[in-house]
């Protein structure tokens, strides 16, 4: 990491000390954030203009609506941070604004390309960019609300078990509910349909369960560090302490079997493993967990056709190009990326509408095609900056719960990016999962904005000047006091 | 807790690095493999943005044109007189790819051929859009039209190939039923799909197949000229006697090998080779093949162009073969062009042309010139003698026998004032030869003494004559009309 932040645990920390030095006010860096946000807004506006010019060969008023809505929303977000978390990390929100803005542009771009298309089943393309703007608005509202009503992230630890229970139910609910409320879409049973709305409770469950695990591990930390036997140079945990790991593993397998959602189960298990590792500092947990996951994956591969399909598509997508549920999707994604090459086709000048699910799971392939390897690499680096800044907040914050939660949230985003981008570039088998902040979809966006708010809250706690109890007004030494004549009461 | 947090940070950076590395592989290093994959329609779509080259026949008449459109695929391919030329031009379809000349000369037509490199560079410098090169064919418009009209007049399924014997230029290549490639080139996806569905329907009789190059038929009696050529090469002459029996028994079996209708070939015990060929006596040729043996027969066939898997004109041509000849019975049957003998109409025309050209086999070809976008010739095809299949003396002897055969052949449309050398064939096929209508063959060249055109005609399944069809009645009139169209139009 090499970050200059001192290890905060236990000691008050040098930065806190300088922050409280008399006459020096800790910088909030909100101005920096505003400059970076403006830069992101500029890039997004430029991207939007390019898309319009390349697709329509003219600029329409739509650009103004979308652009203004975007600017307005992030101006509000910035103000919310100024008001409720003035010491928050200044780089995180601009990263999110850039990703979300780019996502909006790409979603709009796919809308333009598919406008008027009639599908074989007679349905027409339904433009979704405007809906995504609305979702962004609701997401930022939740973001601001989280900052306002959660002045201290440690408050969450109190509700750890409640969150855990709610999260578990939310995660498993679509898998066990009947088809009319929880329909199977694209082979995965992860949606709940409430009236006109489709929500993915798993997205929210991810955060709830992270809060639970962080709280649980902090309170029971000592138990896990009790050494069991030593084996191959590792301290193995005691068998009875393996409970939580087995529980997580069980939930993962349940998600994989009941909901056929490989991506979420991989993501969930990875997060639990990392939280355990951060809490215990024991590599043994990771090795053990990876072993269990590998075992589970092999068994799943042997038993379930949907797992076998994904693996076969990954090994040779072209050979299974014409098979139903075969390599078509991943092939299209690779064609897009390869045709984009180093420099890309140019925003709005490629043919990303040929990629299935171009505005959700495969949205990064669209960016790879139109912005080329250069843009694709930049995108990945923005994600990396986001995750590392989040992690930095976790390292700097002083309480164990904040460290665990912050580390977990930052890792979750990065790992999700790894799963989805690895999938579309054929590094690992494709598992349907959204790209954080980019993909179209309300649930994912809302959940991720809550996640951002939590990361900002934790980083704000780390950077804010520590409130040390005010020293009492100085009084002269007792010896220097005048002798006071006290009249004796009559 | 900070040490594990920092390690998690390392892990996150490793994940991003893995993604970057893999993206480099897909988008930069290995990009060509995916870009050039046949399933990648992006390349095809890019080609549409470029003005594709024209295809013209020998007199310069354009048969495949381009029209600028206002839709997203800038240029529309249009075919003039589509069904007549479709077997040669093939089609260019956004959805269904390419076939025929559109495929064989694709690089040239779309402008990416190396021979157009200098022009591409100058287009790049001058800022003009790069344009494809033009292809001028050897086809003679009048001969091609006659061939097509003759086949379609009675609704025949079949093919006609005409070759200029001394150069190998293909003067006509017709195949019926044909199709209108304009429907597949349409920019209206639904129109394309409807046409494709119709053209590939089970009862459509495969209009998309160019029978001249892609269909293999039993050669029937037309193969007797090859057998006779082998006998002549073996030291026999036109007076060598062969059996005149109406029917013989195949060696090593009880199966009879009868003449047509079981008629004896002549009044005596034997007939000379000349009479045997003129009357197309199966017994004599069975015996002839038996005396020659499989090896000599095969060698002669190969000299005529059999067993050449690489033949392309530049349309890819199926390989004609004598098939396996496991025993003497098979050898006898092969001698009359049955058993496993398989031949394309093009190859049969090559056989006729080779005899016509004093035994010298010329490489058949369809492209006479490659023209740049500026209509300057870039590349002229030079006639190429591949092989000497027969000595001049033997070729002349065989020609004389074929003149007798033409005199003996019935059918309408005999040419006035022009001597024709020919051989008919009535090829049995299918499991029950008595129930399947035979294919009618006719190969010929004219004028016999100074040949200018050689042709092969096949009409599948007896044409309009059913079981009573013969090569003379069904195929010969077509062949004569085609030759006449060329000779009269000189």
Automatic annotation (TrEMBL), chain A:
InterPro entries to which the protein is assigned, alphabetical: FtsW/RodA
List GO BP terms, alphabetically: cell division; regulation of cell shape
Q: Where is the composition biased (Low complexity)?
A: 1-17
Where is this protein primarily located? membrane
Q: Which domain of life is it from?
A: Bacteria
Entry's Pfam families?
Answer: FTSW_RODA_SPOVE (PF01098)
* Transmembrane portions of the chain: 34-51, 63-81, 128-147, 159-181, 201-218, 262-278, 285-304, 371-392, 404-425, 437-458
Residues of the region (Disordered) are 1-27
Query: Record's Gene Ontology CC terms?
Result: cell division site; plasma membrane
Topology versus the membrane, per the UniProt entry?
A: Multi-pass membrane protein
What's the name of the protein? Answer: Cell division protein FtsW, lipid II flippase
UniProtKB/TrEMBL annotation, chain B:
Q: Name one GO molecular function term.
A: peptidoglycan L,D-transpeptidase activity
> What region holds the Penicillin-binding protein transpeptidase domain?
158-483
Q: Which Gene3D superfamilies match?
A: DD-peptidase/beta-lactamase superfamily, Penicillin-binding protein 2a (Domain 2)
| Pfam families per the UniProt record, alphabetical | PBP_dimer_2, Transpeptidase
Query: SUPFAM superfamilies, from UniProt?
Result: beta-lactamase/transpeptidase-like (SSF56601)
Task: Report the record's Gene Ontology biological process terms.
Answer: cell wall organization
Give the top-rank taxon of the lineage listed in the UniProt record for this protein: Bacteria
Give a Gene Ontology cellular component term annotated to this protein.
Answer: plasma membrane
**InterPro entries in the record, alphabetically?**
Beta-lactam/transpept, Beta-lactam/transpept-like, PBPA_dimer, PCN-bd_Tpept
Residue stretches making up the Penicillin binding protein A dimerisation domain: 52-135
Q: What is this protein called?
A: Cell elongation-specific peptidoglycan D,D-transpeptidase
| Organism expressing this protein natively | Lentzea waywayandensis
